[in-house]
């Protein structure tokens, strides 16, 4: 075990996955073909949304979502500092202003009290939207955020990259799956290799809003439409007589090439078939970690096993984080740190953010470490990780 590398996350590619990709590689379509629509339909069904739009990656999903919601220069959008930078950067791509709110120190999620304080301290209309993140796989209570957003006339983009298959329990004791469109206008997912569903790269946007869905389809492909009812140029201009010719299309807005390929979609479809099994295994790994570390003196905080958690990450807050990190690496255990607070990245510092602005997020960063968490992590590997952590603090 000492010489075996154990990463914090790892893809699981099976023979079924490989055969699904090969079948698509030998078909008539490598991109813009039937596997895209098939993957979108299957993913929407899995999540519980009406519509899904497959895109190149999670960042593209965020960018297209902000474009679809008409984020403009100067618009203010609230998000969490404990996330991958793309959750904030998508607003900047549109010229908007990112306003970070602090996290809840026990859940690590965007703190609704911090958001409410921001909103209450400004005139209505100051802010346009909120981008909460299902960080680590723990679902945000979007029902509560929806009420707050409605009070202030805001939209919500749910960043659910860590949480396909995760859910929270609403006020009616019903499960609300991450990304189902019940409380957020749009939700986004990532298919990076360490995520629950791996496509190499790739992303998905889900929604229940048909108008937003149609807008996203157009923005995904250069702003081009081939839907005849949407054409604005005349049939005669297009080169037809009584109808538009088959070759005709129109670029009606400035869009992007953010498409997913068919062979990536084929891999995603194959992976989706065992997504629930993967979550069950992740939750079992999380329960083992929780039991092993509960009440240890070196702990400053710990991910808790809660209903609906999808466990993309399992996080400890520890004393001497750097020492533990290096100790684990010396034993080929490659833990990771999620995340350096976005507001203290040099780019956002240049926009005026500084240390002390978000104390809970900053304290969390000083102590956090993400342990190996992926469905193929074996019992022996997890036992080895646990032993090395406890052993480090027992010396």
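^ structure tokens above, recovered residues below v
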């Amino acid at each position: 075990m000492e010489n075996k590398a154990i990463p914090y996350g790892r893809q699981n590619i099976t023979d079924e996955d490989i055969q699904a990709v090969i079948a698509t590689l030998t078909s008539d379509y490598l991109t813009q073909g039937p596997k895209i629509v098939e993957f979108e339909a299957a993913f929407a069904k899995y999540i519980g949304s009406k519509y899904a739009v497959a895109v190149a990656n999670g960042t593209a999903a965020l960018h297209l979502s902000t474009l679809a919601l008409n984020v403009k220069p100067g618009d203010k959008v609230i998000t969490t500092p404990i996330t991958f930078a793309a959750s904030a950067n998508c607003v900047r791509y549109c010229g908007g202003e990112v306003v970070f709110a602090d996290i809840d120190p026990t859940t690590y999620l965007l703190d609704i009290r911090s958001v409410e304080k921001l909103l209450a301290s400004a005139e209505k209309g100051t802010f346009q939207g909120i981008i909460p993140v299902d960080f680590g796989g723990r679902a945000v209570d979007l029902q509560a955020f929806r009420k707050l957003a409605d009070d202030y006339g805001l939209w919500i983009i749910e960043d659910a990259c860590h949480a396909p298959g995760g859910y929270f329990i609403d006020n009616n004791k019903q499960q609300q799956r991450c990304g189902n469109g019940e409380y957020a206008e749009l939700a986004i997912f990532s298919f990076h290799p360490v995520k629950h569903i791996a496509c190499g790269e790739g992303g998905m946007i889900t929604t229940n809003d048909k108008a937003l869905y149609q807008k996203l389809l157009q923005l995904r492909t250069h702003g081009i439409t081939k839907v005849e009812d949407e054409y604005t140029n005349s049939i005669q201009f297009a080169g037809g007589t009584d109808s538009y010719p088959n070759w005709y299309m129109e670029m009606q807005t400035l869009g992007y090439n953010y498409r997913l390929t068919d062979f990536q979609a084929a891999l995603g479809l194959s992976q989706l078939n065992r997504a629930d099994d993967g979550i069950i295994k992740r939750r079992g790994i999380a329960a083992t970690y929780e039991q092993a570390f509960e009440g240890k003196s070196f702990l400053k905080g710990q991910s808790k096993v809660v209903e609906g958690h999808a466990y993309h990450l399992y996080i400890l807050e520890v004393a001497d984080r750097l020492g533990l990190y290096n100790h684990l690496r010396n034993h080929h255990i490659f833990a990771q740190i999620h995340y350096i607070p976005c507001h203290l990245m040099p780019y956002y510092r240049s926009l005026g953010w500084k240390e002390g602005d978000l104390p809970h997020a900053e304290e969390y960063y000083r102590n956090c470490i993400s342990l190996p968490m992926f469905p193929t992590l074996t019992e022996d590997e997890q036992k080895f990780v646990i032993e090395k952590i406890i052993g480090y603090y027992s010396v």
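The first strand starts at residue 6 and ends at 7.
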